[in-house]
Amino acid sequence: MKKKIAFITFLFVGCFPLFSFGQVSTYQATQRIKGKIFNFYPDSKAPSRLRNNHDARIVFSDRNSNKAFSTAYGQHPLGEYKVGEAFYVIGEKNGFYQLVKADPKLLGRPKGLFGWLYSPKNHFSDKAKVSYVGWMPKNNLLYYDHAYVSPTNNRAVRYSVGVNRIERLYNLRRYLNGDSLILFSDPFLKTPCPYKIHTGQSVYAYKRDDVHKTVLISDCPQLSTDSTHFMGWVSMDMITAVGQNEVYRIMPDAQHLACTSIIGNDTMSVHSADFQSRYLFDAGSLSLQSSSSRNVSFDSLHSVWLPVSIWDGKANKFINVKGGYTYVSDVQRMKNGQKQMNIHVFFFAQDKHEVGKLIGALQNVALRMSPNRKYAFSATMISELGNQYLPLTDSLVQWLDFIQSPPHVTRNKDAGVKDAFRNLVLQTRNDCFEDNLLFLFGKSQDISIDSHLHQQLASRSFSMTFFQLSSDNREASQDFLLTAKEALDKNIAEYSQYIQNYIVDPFLLKPSLFFDYGTDANVYLLETPKSSLATGGIVFPLAGQKISNATVELVLDTLFSQIPRRDELLLSSLERYENRLGVLRSKPSWLIRYVHQYAETPTPSIDNIDRNSVSDVYYIPALMPDSTLSHFQKGYVFSKNEISGFLQSFRDLLPVFSEGLGKRELKLLRSLYRQERKNINKRNLRKVLSSESSLAELFYHKTGVHVNDSLFYHLSPSRLKRNEAAFKDWEILYDLSLRKLQKMEEDYVEAKLEEVLVGNDVYYFIPQTLIP
Q1: Residue 382's closest CA among 357, 405, 416?
Q2: 137-179: per-residue pLDDT in tens?
Q3: For a surface tag, which of 37, 270, 324, 460 has the fewest beta carbons within 10 Å of its beta carbon?
Q4: What's the rounded Cα separation, in Å, for the pair 103 and 1?
């Protein structure tokens, strides 16, 4: 009997952890995840019950210099840990967790005598390899490896950098440096991080501090992602939860947009110029509706955040070198204008064969075209009988064909050089900063034009380069060069006067010096941007020779190098002064005054808010009716990391069948959709889709977007049969959906998807009409 008692006692003791030899015992268990699986968006209605997960629970340091202690009372520090470092929990006491470093390779059945009795999911295979951390306060730990997610679809909630509380406007400079938000390494916002994020940029929130004043953010929705660039703490009123991927893009013709402000519960008429962004995020899933009773049908209203400018754009200005005003709106005009380059060629009818021989050099324009610019081309053959025009076209081939084989001269009321320049002025836009390159080929013709034309060319940012095709000692040939030099001097003078309206830095003013770039010809071009802001020059051959293709190529190389650098110099200078001086004379916008009027707590005068940057943005919650949203284009935005996964999720649901949808193919589809439904329920750890759920629900949970056709909403996967009444409609819809998916994939591969700038990051915009 004694032996039995001793044996049972031995078994009973052996089945429990042994702590006699160090902090981690042979049979030490970690905490299991259980129901703490999803980091649901705060204040949202989370699912009442989730299936338990029995894997080892991992927690993370939520700040830098996070101290671990030898006891559960915060005594005797053992070490400090950085934000994001992972730990297993092996004990809990007095508001502290006992931690060891997390490493999946350490998990397994213990090596002890009774190791076979323990689960390999939450035990250590070799306690000697476990790195003990110590005791750390629970409040200093992050419980999830992912950002806040929506209970609706378990996808990450997107935040945008922008103010959402009027009181914060009086103390912006502590958190913003120009257009950059400062991150801190601790929730008390004492120690700045080296990382900065731009106003309007999309981020993800992981955790709020105990008093809901600060929030931990990152640029990635998953901690385990290798592409995580930063993680830090910011004030909660400096970021706004705006939804997920669904957006509304403001159409170009939108003017006054009616919406209901949730702040004042008033109907407002907002102009498209009041927004800091062309895209409004759909925040319907975040419950922005006002709690006040209002006799409206919420079914026809959509929740959005309005990203409005804090400053009145009409008053944002600074003084230029001429003593006048340069407006902040000019900076964006310059940025947009510089995306377009127009190339124009003038030549005379009697020289068309010689110009045609230079087509080999001109065709190489295609090799110099930047993917970040748009290009257009025009050509004019000058004749006293009548000029022949090729208007601006984006077809390079059509342009080359015109130059190589120009049309026959027909009588035209437009004739001669002056009419050619007048036509050129008419087909180019004034004061929009598009780069216009003019190449004029001639020999001994009169190329003089009126002074007012030079002014108009300068305000269209024309670069003029004159080519003399052949050289001789005749007086007319010399006059051609003298007239070209005179025209070039006038163009330089007029352009210098024009561009000074947009120069604030006096050190950008240049003396406009020429440099001889030629070897086998005289190639005198302005040395831009080193000693000139204007571009262009004069090119003529050595005595008794002709202009060659190599010389034309040299000019093209030089100008295509100079102009982008000149543009960047002008734009970067204005952007620098925009951030520093743009708000000195600014006044708060009428929308900010409106928000100030309805402030919940008394605040100082709105004119006393911090003057930080013209890019400051404030998010106003609002409800927009369908009639207003008709001025928007609905769609979705995806980052470069998200777009491939989005397309693949659609490809998983829309396999290609070589022989159409027969019985066998429909059976495969039903089986595929049944398995996808199981996978989605398993991933969500709850039943979000039943066997009777519609195809629209299945596609939404798989892809994160709403499909278009109503048939998706009326069909369930189990009804995909040939004897169903809706089969023919489904067959047509399936084919259409495949073609839409292929179109999206082709546009992505060929870089045709529209790219949009969100903050400082590039996203792809996919219109709702492209979604199956």
Answers
A1: 416
A2: 999 999 999 999 998 888 999 999 999 999 999 999 889 988 8
A3: 324
A4: 46
